Amino acid sequence: MFIATLLAAAAVAANQHEDLLVKRLPEVFARSAVHYKALDAAATPLMEAGDAKGKVPHSWSAKTGRLDMRSIYWWTSGHFPGSLWYLYEATGDEFFKERATVWTEMLAPNSKVTDNHDVGFIMNCSYGNARRILKTDKYDDLLRETAASLSKRFNPSLGLIRSWGALDGKNDFLVIPDNLMNLELLEAVAKNGEWGTGNGERGMGNGERFDKIARSHADVTMKHHFRADGGCYHVLNYDQRPGFLGQVQEFRRGQGLSCETAWSRGQSWGIYGYTMMYRFTKERRYLEFAQKLADYAMNNPNMPADGIPYWDYGAPGEERDSSAAAVMASALLELSTFVPGEDGERYRAFAVHQLIWLCSDDYFAKPGENGGWLLKHGVGHKPGNSEIDVPLDYGDYYFLEALLRFRALKH
Length: 411
Ligand code: GLY
Description:
Blueprint: H1 2-48, E1 56-60, E2 67-70, H2 79-91, H3 94-105, H4 119-134, H5 140-151, E3 154-155, E4 160-161, E5 174-175, H6 179-190, H7 207-224, E6 235-238, E7 248-252, H8 264-281, H9 284-298, H10 322-338, H11 341-358, E8 378-381, E9 386-390, H12 393-410
Antiparallel strand pairs: 1-2, 3-4, 5-6, 6-7, 8-9
Helix pairs in contact: 1-2, 1-11, 2-3, 2-4, 2-12, 3-4, 4-5, 4-6, 5-6, 6-7, 6-8, 8-9, 8-10, 9-10, 10-11, 10-12, 11-12
The structure holds glycine.
């Protein structure tokens, strides 16, 4: 009886939180639209001429007041166009469709890139959203070509896609958890029906192969890249020597505090990646693993009360990383749709709590602040002394995605 009363009270509180966020949504999308119009107006002349010609906005420095523009080959170049697509979806304002198309179509040369794994991120966030929202097949060949380029980085002996380094590098075979995010492009292209390309339709003949590569990478990563408690490592170096094949020869802290702690954004990539793999494959092992990684983060003793993680779970009291929270909130909302009962409700409630805080003045910039970006307090690479407490294009992207996922759940 007592437990039943407690559960009923928790359900009422969860509904009240959701109502709060529902009420905030129109203002949050409207303010985001104002921000991104200002950002587009500031970035367009830089992209068209001068030092930043051909580059895409990535961040902003409060110290110099300057926009940080990056090459179209930088791993985040798909996020700014992707946010413009999400704003088109959120507001229906044709301005965003027009500008999203311009910024997206700059990224085309990435379809041939084979020297890193990020083409999945880059092309799926930009062209993938264009395809989905415009319901067009005009970008399909480009996306198939990108998946083919990414699959060249797959090593069948190890069963893994190499994250960084030359395709045929003999000494290091480096993999990071972010790589899981690139599998979404492979699975989307592989999926029969949606792309009309599975099993050789329309000439590529790679649908099944892309799916196998994605599953293999997810399975081997599941075995090595997370500790027994579900916390992630950042950089793993796999051995390619016969006799040692597939063993982890080295752990590197990478963007995390140490090899023994969990880098927050890496943890969020993991939750998102395995939830996404379940969406495509319906394999329970991916769902269960996503839950394990989510539980690690949600129950972590160092998770702050507002649900916005420190940049590393081993660095309490240091900077928060709003981007890690945005990726996690988006992932948890999707996860909640796959998990019935109390656990699903727990994931949804945690994501809503994170979003309420991300929408507060503590994290969500006011117009005129933050160089036009939405979220304050992101951390790119603290050990590299780079991008500490700054806005980040991918933080905004997953923030908007999470808000749209929440809106869809309420309809
Ligand atoms: N992919 C690099 C990062 O998450 O910072």
